[in-house]
Design brief:
This protein is of the alpha/beta class. The chain has two domains: 26-79 and 161-167 and 194-266, 3-Layer(aba) Sandwich (Rossmann fold), CATH 3.40.50; 83-159, no CATH class. The chain contains eight helices and nine strands. Strands 5-6-7-3-8-9 form a six-stranded mixed β-sheet, sandwiched between helices. A three-stranded antiparallel β-sheet has the order 2-1-4, covered by helices on one side. A hairpin with a 4-residue loop joins strand 8 (210-215) and strand 9 (220-226). Helix 7 (201-207) crosses helix 8 (241-265). The radius of gyration is 19 Å and the shape is globular.
Length: 266
C-alpha cells in the first residue's frame, strides 16, 4: 500500500541531504554558466529543474556528480553516506551487448562478483519492467525500452541519489507518461532523492515535490515552487485544478525568467 505524502510534511521531518550555496561556474572562454546558485535538496524527494536552454540546468547536475567543477561557492552533503547515479538524455547503450550485459556494465567495472552482480541485475530488470528482454540487443528495442535499460543500469549500483538530465525528452507522449509513472513508483519504493532536468512544465509539476525555475545569462534560480500535492501522483492528478494551477505558476515564473534573460542580453 502506498501512503501519499506532501512536500510540506517531508520538509518538516528532514534536513537537506545536499546544499549548494552561492555556486558559480565560469568556463575558460569567460562564459558565466552559473552565478549565485542556491539549492537545498531534501532526502527522498524529487526536485525538477526547468528553464530556457543555456540556463545551466545540466551544469548543476555535472557539478553535483563531480563531472564538472564549481568556480565559486560551496557544495556540501549532509554526510558521506550518499551514492550517485546519472541518467543522461541519450541511453548510450553498447550496441554489441545484450540488455543484461548493458545493465551489468557498472558492476563489472567495479569488479562485483558475477553471482552477486547477476542478482542485482535481475532485481533492476524487474523494477523497470524488462523481464523477458534480458538477451535482447539495443537495436531490437524501442526508444522507451532503451531508456528503461539506461535507468536499470543506474539503479543496479544501488544509489540513493539519482540525477536525470532530460531522460524522456525524445519520447512520444504516451511512452513518456508511462515512464513518468514508473519513475514515481521507483522513487517511492527505493526512497530515492532525484534531481530531474526537463523542458516540460507538465512533466516537472507531475513528478516533483518542488520545481526550481532558472534563468540564463547567468544561470540562477528565479523561483522555487513547492508542489504541495499528495505524492506519488496518480494519472488523474493531470486533470485536476491543483495541477493546472501549479503549471500556470511555473509557466508564469518561466516566462518572467526568459524575459529577464532577454533584457540582460540586450
Amino acid at each position: 500500500m502506498i501512503v501519499s505524502t506532501s512536500t510540506s510534511a517531508i520538509a518538516m521531518q528532514t534536513q537537506p541531504i545536499l546544499t549548494l550555496e552561492q555556486v558559480g561556474k565560469t568556463y575558460a572562454n569567460g562564459t558565466v554558466a552559473l552565478q549565485d546558485f542556491n539549492l537545498a535538496v531534501e532526502p527522498g524527494t524529487i526536485t525538477s529543474l526547468v528553464g530556457p536552454s543555456g540556463c545551466g540546468k545540466s551544469t548543476v547536475l555535472r557539478i553535483i556528480s563531480e563531472l564538472g567543477d564549481l568556480t565559486t561557492g560551496r557544495m556540501a552533503w549532509q554526510s558521506g553516506d550518499h551514492k550517485l547515479a546519472y541518467v543522461f538524455q541519450e541511453a548510450a547503450l553498447m550496441p554489441w551487448a545484450t540488455v543484461m550485459d548493458n545493465i551489468r556494465l557498472p558492476l563489472k567495472l567495479a569488479k562485483v562478483p558475477k553471482r552477486q552482480a547477476l542478482e542485482l541485475v535481475s532485481e533492476a530488470i524487474a523494477q523497470v519492467g524488462l523481464q523477458g528482454f534480458e538477451r535482447v540487443y539495443p537495436r531490437e528495442l524501442s526508444g522507451g525500452m532503451k531508456m528503461r535499460v539506461s535507468i536499470a543500469r543506474a539503479l543496479v549500483t544501488q544509489p540513493n541519489v539519482l540525477l536525470m538530465d532530460e531522460p524522456f525528452g525524445a519520447l512520444d507522449e504516451m511512452t513518456r507518461g508511462k515512464l513518468n509513472q514508473d519513475l514515481l513508483t521507483l522513487q517511492y519504493q527505493r526512497n530515492l532523492t532525484i534531481l530531474f532536468v526537463t523542458h516540460s512544465i507538465y512533466e516537472a509539476v507531475y513528478l516533483a515535490h518542488r520545481v526550481v525555475v532558472m534563468a540564463s545569462k547567468p544561470g540562477r534560480v528565479v523561483a522555487d515552487i513547492a508542489i504541495d500535492s499528495p505524492h506519488p501522483r496518480v494519472p488523474d492528478y493531470r486533470t485536476s485544478a491543483q495541477f493546472n494551477r501549479y503549471c500556470r505558476d511555473v509557466s508564469h515564473s518561466l516566462s518572467n525568467a526568459m524575459g529577464e534573460s532577454l533584457a540582460l542580453a540586450l
